[in-house]
Amino acid sequence: KLKDFLLWIKEDLGPFGPLALALAYIPLTIVAVPASVLTLGGGYLFGLPVGFVADSLGATLGATAAFLLGRTIGKSYVASKIKHYPKFQAVSVAIQRSGFKIVLLLRVVPILPFNMLNYLLSVTPVRLGEYMLATWLGMMPITFVLVYVGTTLKDLSDITHGWHEVSVFRWVLMMFGIALAVILIICITRVAKSSLDKALAENATDLLDGKKNDDTCMLPIAEPPPPDQLHEESLIIRIDPSDS
Questions:
Q1: Which of 109, 120, 128, 117 is nearest to 64 (CA)?
Q2: How do the domains of the chain map onto residue ranges?
Q3: Cβ of 20: how many Cβ atoms within 10 Å?
Q4: What is the CA radius of gyration of the chain?
Q5: Average pLDDT over residues 60-73
Q6: What 3-state class would DSSP assign to 72?
Q7: Which of 75, 114, 189, 225 has its CA 20 to 30 A from that of 240?
Q8: CA pair distance 70, 29, nearest whole angstrom
């Protein structure tokens, strides 16, 4: 179905194709469907500059839509699922101090699935603007590589169908570009992972102290107390013995 959608974008939408591609990320990300095919499709259909802009914008819009859904009507459900992701406990504490930095590193180093991370981050104290900017910047490297691969696949398809010929130099350039992109991703990921591990380690003491004082995991999630608790606390009257 995604293939048919990409063909529809290419054949029927004309200049509105990149916009339709970007908007398609929103429903796919909300229902947690991997959108890597769309990213490759952006490069295949529109080439590197236009495809990269469309895919980068679309991935950010999709991640933001899932974030807002998790922060509003899905908040209680997402909060109930955090206990199943022990790695996220240290992340949640670190975000309380350095929201933008941690989200940026998490986008470069996917210690959790992309779609699940969108929802888990929604119940942390990170601000919406920081989340969007960090998500956009953090996903740029992998988006660029996938779009470049999609562009290369388009060139290979044209060659296979005999639509144009490619010189040996062009072949070498395409293969070199893919290899270079992969190497850059590996280097960027390693640097980001080192920074992320350091940032999480700095907050490990706070997390352990919180567990010592409370049997539940210490997560900085602001939730209002239940109505019954508010009612009971409103009936408490403190009497100072010194006044009697």
A1: 128
A2: 1-155+167-215
A3: 16
A4: 23
A5: 94
A6: coil
A7: 225
A8: 12
Residues 85-128: tens digit of each pLDDT: 777 777 777 887 778 888 998 898 877 788 888 998 998 888 99
With CA atoms as reference, report the closest residue to 82 among 196, 210, 218: 218
195 close to 105: Cβ distance less than 8 angstroms: yes
Per DSSP, the residues of 31-96 read: TT---HHHHHHHHHHHHHHHHHHHHHHHHHHHHHHHHHHHHTTTHHHHHHHGGG-THHHHHHHHHH
According to DSSP, residue 125 is labeled S
Q: What ranges in 161-236 are assigned the alpha helix state H? A: 168-202, 204-213, 227-234
CB 37 within 8 A of CB 146: no
**Packing angle, helices 99-108 and 114-122, rounded to 10:** 170
The angle formed by the CA atoms of residues 116, 119 and 124, to the nearest 5 degrees, is: 125
Say which range, 7-16, 47-56, 73-82, 208-217, has the weakest mean pLDDT.
208-217
Phi-psi domain of 25 (left: phi exceeds 0; alpha: psi -120 through 50; beta: other): alpha
Mean pLDDT of 183-205: 77
Structure tokens at 179: 């290899």
Query: CB 61: neighbour CB atoms within 10 A?
Result: 19
Q: Which two tokens stand for residue 58?
A: 């679309």
